[in-house]
Design goal:
Helices cover 18% and strands 30% of the residues. It is an alpha+beta fold. It has 2 domains: 311 residues, Lipoprotein localisation LolA/LolB/LppX (outer membrane lipoprotein receptor (LolB), chain A), CATH 2.50.20; 91 residues, no CATH class. A hairpin with a 7-residue loop joins β10 and β11. The longest helix is centred in the last third of the chain and has 15 residues. About 24% of the residues have low confidence.
Length: 424
Amino acid sequence: MARNEPTHGTDGAAGAGESAGRAPGRRKAVRYAVPVAVAGIAAASIGIGTALASSGDPDLPGISAQDLIAKMAKSDTQQLSGTVKVTTDLGLPSMPEGLSLGDGPGGKAGHGPAGKGEGEDAASPQAKLTELASGTHTLRVAADGPDKQRLSIVERAAEYSLIRNGDQVWAYDSKSNTVHRSTAPKDAKGGKEAPEELRGASPQDLAKKTLAAVDDSTSVSVDGTAKVAGRDAYQLVIKPKQAESTVGAVRIAVDAKNGVPLKFTLAPKGGGKAVVEAAFTKVDFAKPAADTFAFTPPKGAKITEDRDGKDGKGGGKAGADDRKKGLDESGLSGMNVIGKSWTSIAEFKTPGGVGPGAGAKGAKGGKDAGPAGALLDGLGSKVSGSFGSGHVFSTRLVNALVTDDGKVYVGAVTKDALVKAASK
């Protein structure tokens, strides 16, 4: 394997921060918004599958980590098309076919076994894309500048597509022959930005989020080269230094020619296969054909429309207000973030409490905790501290502490870190 030595050492967090700060484009790379540790990357929704096309390591000129990050930040590639294989393995049970994480009984989120919702449209992107949170999926992606993007989830005998062409955003579910039309939301400057659902499902988007955590709590190095989708790439390795983080390492394969991330792998500290991996299996940086972004609703399709976000389901201020209202009603508003970078913990309160002693008024229980208490005892491990008692629920990356009085602490951190945060 061709090796590329880092310029600031395996423990050079300060070097990573300081040197990168002097490199052209470095400040641009770290402006990306930080999710709650890497929980936002793994739990929201987007995970990633096995990468193919590995056929020997290319011999490339040496490059430092800071220069490779700068190369990624300065990359202005806006045209591409290709196939991405996505796999997420958080250690959660697989969802039955036809159901998504957003479904309630009977598939009310629009993706029940019959492929039709009760009161919701089956093409709604918010519900459909939660399916990427587990299992392996094949995506077809295409982009031609900031106003034209397409993402398709290829399923057995069906396909779901999300298409943005100028101001118009179309979502089509071929299984139910349902179409959802909306208008692209406006950015801070009044221009149109890509809908949230079109961001975050590619190696590029995941790499941007991870680069936001590169600070003095992080070790950064270049660890050899690789072939991804037939292209030469450098391998950037990012490792948290904090012992409380459950992230082992993030490995990003960066196109040696244009700086585009081609593969993203998130490995847990506990070992085993990757929790999140996203990789192009095919990629072409030529301008996609114009008809790639054209869409006409098929004959007989059921069409729902956002009317420029005024119905509260899509883009625009109305859509944002509706989502906030939904959080308020679910009791998940008022989230507080404890800590920073890789060890960030989200703290919020659920309505009425969810612990074994929480009744209609959140009253303390005990021996008479009932079925809810028995269920929590079976699913999580019981813990206690100055906060009282609660249960810790674990995946291969993300841990969550639910206290008996209804507070929730979640992050890509150890159980002890959650108990410590709740005890403060």
